[in-house]
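Suppose you are handed a protein chain with no further information: no name, no annotation, nothing but its sequence. What can you learn? This example shows the usual starting point.
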Amino acid sequence: MRTPIIRVSDSARKAFQDASVNPAGDSLRVTISPSFENNLCFGPKAESDIVVDCDGIMILLDPPSAAGADGLSIDFVDGPNGFVFKIENPNKPGTLKELKRDCEATLIPSGERVQLSQGKRVVLTQALGGSFTVKTEVGQLVRIAERDADALGLEVTQASDVPVESGPFRLEKVIEKLKTVFDPEIPVNVVDLGLVYACEAQPLPEGGYKVEIKMSMTAPGCGMGDVLKEDARSKVQTVPGVAQVDVKIVWEPPWDPSRMSEAARLQLGMY
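A reasonable first move is to predict its three-dimensional structure. Written in structure tokens, the prediction is:
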């Protein structure tokens, strides 16, 4: 996962610096809920956290929060009850955006490639895992890839800016990466949706591991299979110790909602 770009105003920076002296020695953390409610707090660092260096202010993000944090701005403003932190997130669904340039997109759910023109207005419906789902002026739902974030007025992180992960191979890290792959129509990752049927790793004679993944789609014949397949492959490839990744789309047994995790059911209101 790329490191999100977060902007911190001078007033917020000073407030953070004044608050950073805490007896527990915890770090500043930003959490973003699936409904894009933002929260600032101090807490201990977890192994899977993404660390964002905002010109000396270190901010921790868990992977799900990092997926929707690119372009986040934090300010410290005077409100009715005194000074408060104000967070603005351009990735919040429902945000109207005007395309800054022509860009390619993928029509949902057919998987057909379409061209979006500069100046056209789109409504952001989902911004998770680095990609963006938008609704066009004619009502089409399309997916814009991470590399085209600048067409939406968001900054694109260059490959050289992405920190290289290190450490021994662990299958748990592969699962963590798969949890940053999202269905473009449902704000739940493919693991909690139950789309990942199998994830195994085999050591290679020349060193490293080959990871084999079998995953499905929520609907038979969904045209987004190749898109999510490549998204999963490219993200798992960055896990330390992974030398090869083989992702297969399977249709048997057919997916059904019973495969969803309890967290996914709660998030989607399926009690």
